[in-house]
Amino acid sequence: MKRATLALLAVVPLLACDPVHTRAVDALGGETPGVPRGPLHRPGQPCLLCHDGAFGDPRAFAMAGTVFQSANAVTPLEGATITLLGADGSTQTATTNAAGNFYLSTSEYTPHYPVHVKSIVSGGKSIFMQSHIGENGSCAGCHADPSGPDSPGHVYFDITGTPP
Amino acid sequence: MKHSGWNRCLGVLLVVGVAVACSAPPSDARFVETAPDTTTFPAVAAMLIQSCGSLDCHATVGRNLRIYGDTGLRFSPTDVPSVLIPTTADEITQDYDAVIGLEPEIMSEVVASHGANPERLTFYRKPLGLESHKGGTIINAGDARDVCITTWLEGSADATACKNALSLP
Question: β-pairing, A101-105 with A116-122?
Answer without folding.
Answer: unpaired
